[in-house]
Amino acid sequence: MSTLEVTFVSADRTVWSGQAAQVVVPAADGSMGILPRMQPTLAILDRGAVRIIGEDGEATERDVEGGFVSMDGDVVTIAVDHAARASAN
């Protein structure tokens, strides 16, 4: 099974780094799921939640208010100004 190598950073720290099965981001034109072996992608992020699903199925979620995501060769980079723990609904 292929995995993604994810680096999620904010202006002041690394938010999350490691192997993941899937990443879901709030792209400016709608929610976007990223899976291994996808075409290279670059997208602007809007306000919403970034969700990273680890190899073990455990999900990490952070609220963001913009930034970008880049994916190439199963390497995903998420860069935002600020990332906060996702609020409970």
Automatic annotation (TrEMBL):
Residues 4-83 form the ATP synthase F1 complex delta/epsilon subunit N-terminal domain. One of its GO terms (cellular component) is proton-transporting ATP synthase complex. One of its GO terms (molecular function) is proton-transporting ATP synthase activity, rotational mechanism. It is a peripheral membrane protein. It comes from the Bacteria. Keywords: ATP synthesis, CF(1), Ion transport, Membrane, Transport. Coiled coil: none annotated. The keyword Metal-binding does not apply. It is found in: Cell membrane. PANTHER family: ATP SYNTHASE DELTA/EPSILON CHAIN (PTHR13822), ATP SYNTHASE EPSILON CHAIN, CHLOROPLASTIC (PTHR13822:SF10). Belongs to the ATPase epsilon chain family. This is F0F1 ATP synthase subunit epsilon. It comes from Brachybacterium endophyticum. The lineage of its organism: Bacteria, Bacillati, Actinomycetota, Actinomycetes, Micrococcales.
